[in-house]
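User: Some background: our group keeps a shared notebook of sequences we're curious about, and every so often someone picks one and asks for a predicted structure to add to the entry. Today it's my turn. The entry only has the sequence so far, pasted here. Could you supply the structure so I can complete it?
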Amino acid sequence: MRLLSELQHAARSLARAPGLVAVAVVSLGLGIGANATIFNFVNAIEFRPLPFPEPERLMDVSEDNPQELCAGCGVGTAYPTFQFWRRNAGSFTALGAYREDAFALAGEGEPERVGGAAVSAGLFSILGVTPVLGRGFTTADDVPGAPPVLLLGYGLWLRRYGGDTAVIGRTVRLNGVPRTIVGVMPPRFAFPEFAALWLPMAGEASITSSSDRVAASIGTVGRLKPGVSMAQAGAEMASLSARLAARDSVTYHGWFARVGPLKHNISNDTSGEAFLLALGASGFVLLIACANLANLLLVRATSRARELAVRVALGASRARIAGHLLAESTLLGLAGGAVGLLLSFWGVRYVSGLVNTAMPFWIRLGTDWRFLLYTFAVSLATGIAFGIGPALRASRIDLQETLKTGAPATTAGRRDGRLRGALAVAQIALAIVLLAGAGLMIKSFLVESRTADLGYNPHGVLTARMQLSAPRYQDPAQIRLLEEQLLERLRVQPMVEAATIERPVFLNAFVGHDTRIRLEGAAAPVPMGQGPGHGNAVAPDYFRVMEIPLVSGRAIAGSDGPAAPPAVVVNEKTAALFWPGQSALGKRLKIDEGGPWLTVVGVARDVDSHPFGRGAIPLLYTALAQDSARPFRVMIRFHGDEATAAATLKAVARTVDPDEPVEDVMTLDADLAQQVSPVRFMAMLLGALGGIALGLAAFGIYGTMSYLVTRRTREMGIRMALGADGAGLRRFVIGRGIRLAVLGLVLGIPAALGLTRLMRGVLFSVSPADPVVFGAVGMLLAGISVLACWRPAARATRVDPLIALRAE
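Assistant: Of course. Here's the predicted structure to add to the notebook entry:
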């Protein structure tokens, strides 16, 4: 009851100071709202359980091998291993398997590539999910030779088939194979990740017939039996791994099964580091807002010094005074939390717009008990932690000195002024850290991404990807035929200046696939990591489309067909690395020991592999016709309207193969923009937080200078009476503000230099100690400080000496 009475008394007291309340609540609302907004995302990614029944019992089972992978890196497993686990594991009610993939969906409309998965028949029952229309997979569906069937995701069903319930029993073509739709899964269900359709796993020979855990890797999900712990399940799976190794020491040597929470496995793929970084940044904003609260409470305590002294003289205990003031700060904190909660709903929409990509199905933003508890705890802690200091300070009031008439500039008041100055300095220092981080990210995104010399011209180039999923494209001759027809028909289109195809060629070793380059005449292969990590197999006109100049020799040409001597074009960095001081033309190399010798026919200018200009890397360009595979990217240099060019490319592709989707149709500029979208996200987010921090810091300086002018009105009057002019008083007040700003810079810049070093991995062509950014931040804060001091300084020049002295 006493607590309630104290809170009611505090509310009545605050009601008599609406201006202070409004400023404090808005300031805290901005800080708490920014913090709550970011925590909403962190909560959804890190803490909210998966949207399945009893999600804590869902486990991911994978395989690990320290001799083959990085420490702690797990991969899926091969289908035969999964079958062994399913027959012998007793810790789980059941084990299910899945393999994520993309499929060409055709029939009733334009073909498209859709994310999906091949799954075992029991997977959905393990997850606790059933179709909303039709039926799920049965054991009879999940055997080799069973009639091919298909499950649709709810969103795909609505988008492509208009929610037609008669879709059940309809036949579509998936990767060129007719399949019957037997069911529709519930809304928002998309396991794994973004899957929108599902087919039985046992009918996929490429998965079930392979024992290669990398080439045909599948994920495994199990639901623990009641009473069985994750550690017990892990011990059992380790024993099963030992049994497999004893049976086949070659295939299973060094491999062991790992058991972990399913949530951890899938959330690992969705990096929460960016949001954790943003949560730390929003914490800085909250600290600045809290410093404003402390400043306001010091002002309020000072202005009420005589009132509080009278209450103490009349018998109120100092603890009661401190408790009353602490109750006021607590109410301000909770009110700021309520405003912050409302602002966070808008903030979530703003940040979601910055993400610029679809979120996995299991990330569900919104209000839950964790979010509400976090916001309440932050609000309460803010009110108490940053109110207790001013409350204790006010409770230690000197009665004799305070009750003297005409003595406002007491020693305690001067101490309060110094404390307010220290808080303003801290606000500036915190704002510098945020603004420096935001400035570095913005420079990376806005400046470097537009000025970096990439070595090629991305403007006016349209790109699209084709996967070639139909069974006939297992034959390289069929792939070459499609590529030739596609390029031939594109090159005669009026708006197409040139057309080509590229396909990445990876040259890195991974899990036993040891691909090394050998130079003619060298005794040993090029050591891993010292040669090109990847290259491109390209069709004729590639260098024309990309506008990559040739330094010497020729480009890949139409004469470099399957029967021609194998040719390769290297870039300048590769030529300098392999044949320093020599001409690379005519030199020969092998990409792997079993491959043919490739003759260098040209040297191309270096290009940058990253849109921010991280620097050129060694590259090889081989002839596409001599090594056709799938998938590939078709590229055209065009003139005219982008939409017309995209429609032309799609139409031409349909004439070549109407069942193969053309996906990711976009300009090369848009493709580069997608690559830098994470940096754009962080730049915009840190920029928004930095802007809030700047405004709060400016308010802190303004409040401090206003307090200075108010506390020293008598001094100002004396100065004016002794002949001081307005310009001198302005310089005095602004000079105090600039000193605070300089102190903030002195403290903030070293802290910012230390913290921005942690951003090195996400900055491109920008140093964490970039002098331009730090100089701009320093000048911005100095300018804001001067502006924040200007009005208090102007008020000081309007002090009437007679009125000021008479008032004292």
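Suggested note for the entry: The chain has four domains: 1-51+270-402, 66-254, 405-453+680-808, 471-656. Residues 405-453+680-808 form one domain.
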